[in-house]
Amino acid sequence: MATTNHISTKWLGNMAFESNNPSGHNFKIDIAKEDGGDGSGFRPKALMLSSLAGCSGLDVASLMKKMKLEVDKFHIETIANLTDEHPRYYDSVVIEYHFHGSNLKEEKLQKAVDLSIEKYCGVMEMFRRFAELEIKTIFHSK
Question: Where are the domains of the chain?
């Protein structure tokens, strides 16, 4: 049976909206003051990049736990290029996985990243439909 997500998004006035999430948390969406908003919430296109990094990050964190890998810090940098013509969309995205630690098992961490991007991350698969993706894994050893 197919899974369905149902999200409700309500207008708060001016250019702001509040959207719910199946987690039970709500968040605000708005645009910049120079574009007519109040700058009081998340921007829709940028949220897509957070979703991409969050989805893949959860995969990698889960695999790091399963593989018992020691990592002091882990962060993902997502750098996307917006097209010039409307409707503007991301046509290319660079995703950098940064691992920090003194005992990094680089081969296993790379396997965790590869499993996420090739097999597990559904948001990554969605992005593949409209953008060119470049993946970088960067190890910061102490």
Answer: 1-42, 44-141
